[in-house]
Specification:
With about 250 residues, this protein is mainly α. It is about 70% helix and about 0% strand.
């Protein structure tokens, strides 16, 4: 048997060359063992091509690369005289290029490593990215406009409850735990139909009901009234951009 991996490995049932042959023959266990053994290799290629550290279970590129490696197992042809790992490297690279093409409208930059002169696809990717630049710029401009309009509308909603946008920082609880509990109270009020109806009709907090449903005293709820109202409005009106920001910092 030729050494498909072109490196010295232990012989026997765990020999990667034998595992590869078995996997191509339909042995799922051999495939699983092979993928698990070479996961560090797969992630290293993904990290190299993306220009950043890729973590399993965290980055989409990790899943893309694992699927590509599995594809390489199925499509590898030993008669071509290329080692399996070299072939897998190429498959992973091409699948990542496909992924970045699909995600181009959401991305800010293309990984530098995908544009180096050694990649035969680099010119195609560069051309593709150049064609997308105007679209990305237009989308960014539209998003900036949407954010601005959302803030203006949110500010108007706050004034109905006697709150100014400028005082949000001042009314925010200083301690993280206090902010988290206040946010939980606001979220509850925004999702409970009875509490929400009370809040929208009377434009005040249903303090009695809230104090019974959350781990916050009525006195504390009264002290954090403006902050809870401000957060509740974000959830009730579904201000997407402001909500993303608030959930990120809390």
């Amino acid at each position: 048997m030729n050494l498909l991996f072109r490196r010295k490995e232990q012989l026997g049932e765990d020999d990667p060359n034998l595992l590869l042959a078995k996997a191509q023959g339909g042995d799922d266990r051999a495939r699983e063992v092979l993928i698990k053994r070479f996961t560090p290799f797969i992630l290293s290629i993904a990290s190299q091509k993306s220009g950043r550290y890729i973590k399993l279970g965290h980055d989409e590129e990790a899943s893309i690369s694992l699927i590509a490696f599995n594809e390489a197992i199925d499509t590898f042809d030993n008669s071509r005289g290329v080692s399996f790992l070299s072939f897998a490297d190429t498959v992973i690279k091409r699948r990542m290029i496909d992924y970045y093409r699909k995600e181009a409208r959401h991305a800010k930059v293309v990984p530098i490593s995908l544009l180096d002169g050694e990649d035969e696809d680099s010119q195609e990717v560069t051309q593709y990215w150049a064609e997308r630049q105007s679209i990305v710029a237009h989308q960014a401009k539209e998003e900036a406009t949407d954010r601005k309009e959302e803030i203006i509308f949110y500010s108007r909603c706050l004034t109905e409850y006697g709150i100014s946008f400028a005082e949000l920082i001042e009314i925010s609880p200083k301690h993280e735990d206090a902010r988290r509990r206040a946010m939980e109270a606001a979220r509850l009020m925004a999702t409970d139909n009875e509490l929400k109806d009370y809040f929208l009709r009377k434009k005040e907090l249903p303090l009695k009901q809230l104090s019974e449903m959350v781990d916050v005293s009525r006195k504390t709820l009264e002290r954090q009234r403006k902050y809870i109202i401000a957060i509740a409005i974000i959830f009730i009106k579904d201000f997407r951009y402001i909500r993303e920001y608030v959930e990120k910092i809390l």
